[in-house]
Amino acid sequence: MLAKGHHFPNITLVAIVEADSGLFSPDFRGSEFMTQTFIQVSGRAGRALRAGEVVIQSRHASHQALTHLLTSSYNEIAQRIMDERRLTSMPPFTQLALIRAEGPQLKSTIDLLKKVKLCSEEILQPLSSDIDCLGPVPAPLEKRAGRYRSQLLFKAKTKSTMQQFLCELVYRIDELKTPNRLRLSLDVDPLEMI
Fold this sequence. Notes:
Shape: elongated
CATH class of the largest domain: Alpha Beta
Largest sheet: 4 strands, antiparallel
CATH topology of the largest domain: Alpha-Beta Plaits
Structural class: alpha+beta
Distance between the termini: 23 Å
Order of helices and strands: EHHEHHEHEEHE
Strand order of the largest sheet: 4-5-3-6
């Protein structure tokens, strides 16, 4: 509630509990979200004439992301995050497409994504393009609403390369015989990786 920006002028102490969930997120944006939330919540303490204090609970107090948060400026943190993304070829330096499979059993979702991956390899082989494929793997949130989830991630250096590849891949996926109990979805530039 405090991170939403409500003005409570008499708050002088903010406690951030379970800070570790932001340190070890399966989403590549995890440290960015953690930093954003910490800054927003910290800004709630000491808004009036009284000084404020922020307490952070963590089992990993010496973690690099936490020490940077406490000792660096916002611009330095943003630059560090951008440098990490450049080194790991993540957005905004690449384009992502995530294919998710959902079904009653984990094995069936993985098997379906293996077929999708074979289709993708047939497309990529003659092109020898700048597209990488990661997976298939179980989704970080493996089971949701009683259904198992797996995912296949594609990374391309340019948007046009990704679009050309996906146009052909979607056509090939339509030709696959997908059992009714399984669902596939395609998320271009996914906002969440879980």
